[in-house]
Structure prediction request, 899 residues.
Amino acid sequence: MIVDPDVVGLSRLQFALTALYHFLFVPLTLGMAFMLAIMESVYVMTGREVWKRMTQFWGVLFGINFAMGVATGVTMEFQFGTNWAYYSHYVGDIFGAPLAIEGMMAFFLEGTLVGLFFFGWDRISRVKHLLVTWFLALATSLSALWILIANAWMQNPVGAAFNPQTMRMEVTSFKDVIFNPVAQSKFVHTVSAGYTMGAMFVLSISAWYLLRGRNIDFAKRSMTVAASFGLAAALSVVVLGDESGYTVSENQKMKMAAIEAMWETEPAPASFTLFGLPDVKNHETRLAVRVPWVMGLIGTRSIDTPIPGIRNLVDDAKVRISHGIEAYDAMLILRENKNDAQASAILAMHDKDMGYALLLKRFIDDPRKATPADIEKAADSTIPNVPVLFWAFRIMVACGLYFIALFGYAFWRASKRRLDGRGFLRVALWSLPLPWVAAELGWIVAEYGRQPWAIEGVLPTALGASSLTSGQVWISLGGFVLFYTALAVVDGYLMLKFARKGPDGLGLWPKRPDAIPPTAATA
Amino acid sequence: MFDYDVLRVIWWALIGVLLAGFAIMDGFDFGVAALLRVLGRTEEERIVLLETIEPTWEGNQVWFILGGGAVFAAWPLLYAASFSGLYVAMFVLLLAFIVRPVGFNFREKVENPRSKLIWDSGLIASGVIVMLVCGVAFGNLFLGLPFRFDGDLRMSWDGSFFALFRPFALLGGLVSLSMLTAHGATWAAMKADHSIAVRAANIARIASALHVVLYVLAGIWLAYGIPGYAISGPVVTDAVSNPMFKQVAIGGSWFASYLIHPWFWAAPVIAIVGALGVQIFVGRRGFAGFGCSALAVGGTIASAGFALFPFLMPSALDPVSSLTVWDASSSRGTLLTMLFVTAVFMPVIILYTAWVYRVMRGRVTLEHVRKSHGMY
Prediction:
């Protein structure tokens, strides 16, 4: 039985919208938590009240964002079950574990300590409160670690094998799942993106105060923290993005080829297409501007390993589909008689390709009856949306390089104590949205680029959906759109309101620009 | 030592502990939220009530999130079948959970009575909805749900959202509503300013009495009016997880497992004794009123889980498809690994949670919120 294509499409749309929405808040939480921990550390070490006020003020904005992150995260934990029931059954034995561990190791800590961060200032000692803040920051990043271990398994499903008796993938090695190389590069890349976002948030809002001549000392100190933290984070995000690219070219060759709009295998080392218009129909990239060697170096870290192009990969997929059909046939025999030695041998030989036979289920009910035309269609369906990936990737990388430049310049100005050039401040202010652009595009490259697979090479997305009616998914999709839009309006309103109020408006800082900052004695 | 069947029973118990943990730890947050405008007659009183739960509700909610994750890891078929089958109900439940974080945080950020009324309505509704939906879902389990699996173990569901509102299931919803309302009221009686605490104690007594009456009624109904499920034929406890390999008979009693394991009776006894304890201790100094309520909550949930055992989610449409402890779990390796992780982290979680509660101990008084309301 195959799920209604409308249900698959709507469920994908709902998942993408809710995940992208959740991902507006999560990276900021990651980054802000560490900035708060750094500011509070300075407070505890120097005992200067201004650093406590900074922690508290940025903490208010952190709190607004944190609430949105928690609220939208609930949806994510449960959406696999509601909309992707077959996926949940098929890979739950592996995929469920990191989600549960995330809850126990990270989210519990985060959820328990966040209340103390806000309510504990007068109830626990300075050092204890600082520890709370650091553990809160640590927990947010640990949370990202386990979510990305789960996600990395979708990109590179190691340490698991199919069991015909239970009709699902089962763990063979948890060690492999946890130390998945994709997980490591993805984790550092993603949390660094969050740190960059947090730094930009503080940098931009501080720049606005300086432009308005408000909270001057407060803003300059905040900017200095943001510039240093942001520079380190931006460097890390680009370097580890490169590491991510390297692991992708090893494990997800089709995604890599689509990002590069590389239709044919080029002689090694491949060139990097700086600009071009991918033409999906004719399988070519028009007006391409190519930089020789660069792609081969990034993707393979060698000068003699070729990177396969899309057409070659489609041909490979055809071979894997026919092997997959044999595996599928053997699986059905084993389901009836688990002791069939011949079927066991066939499945053992081709089980890595069984997922490719499942690609056929979009076109025919029984993959064993596939015609060459069906196989052709299924193989073509392995090509993701090339123009979207091509451009999303380029804009993301451009943002990353820009962040290095901006934070580098801000860092230089901060070290020279010249954080007052109006041109610079305006640029810093208007750069505010860019980390969000980059983060959302990063999600699109990673997850939209994984299509048509839910689990790369194992389970096609179309098969993972629940057996729902499209009416049900319309209800939830419509509900989420309405509800999330309303929340976005409230969140935006509150963020603006409290950023405008500023530390002076909240009574954390004197209103007159020339006033002396409060000391511990007067506070 | 950890054979597959032993691990399955351990994980059945652990999920039960998580569920009870959620109901006890987060249940009073829902109760307090639902009573926000009943107990809190002025804005100041409402701030007091909210401040009794604001520092800790977020950690409490993780019991629910972790419950979802743990069911995913330990019982993937149950996670898949229940959440997708109860699709619209789950969606409503999710909305209720989404309102809470923003409601608690954003409510205090706009000083405008209309805006506060809107957030209060959201918080009250979310409290009532979660209590009702969870109870109705539990009630439905005893009646069997309309699902079946095909050979690929893909589930199909043959029933609508409104078909879930069956009389016994609704009674389950009322049991849950009265139980957690009482639980929230005992919390407010312990933590809120004395003027509010007196009112809260009265409500706790009424709601708790209602809980016992409805609970006993549900028990009688279950014993005499609702056919139980049983595995017929050989019960294989350590086979691969595939529900289609067993036989199921309908028509026995849901109390059959109480006859096999007489110590199961401890659960309903604890539930009723706890509820009686609420009558005696609520409103007095100390922790006893709330503690008794926690026993009532834990006992009620355990007694329901015991009655279902070994079933997790019975199917009325195709009884063979019913999910049981013996055929819906993860592989042995996953259960064992997750048990190890749980054994390491659960004690740590309990330790720091206890520490936070200790730090935040004491009543939240009107005087206190007049002076300062946390930088939240």
Observations:
- Chain A touches chain B through 77 residues (CB under 8 Å).
- Chain A has one domain: 7-256+383-511.
- The longest helix of chain A spans residues 5-46.
- Strands of chain A lie at 160-163, 168-171, 272-279, 284-291, 453-455, 459-460.
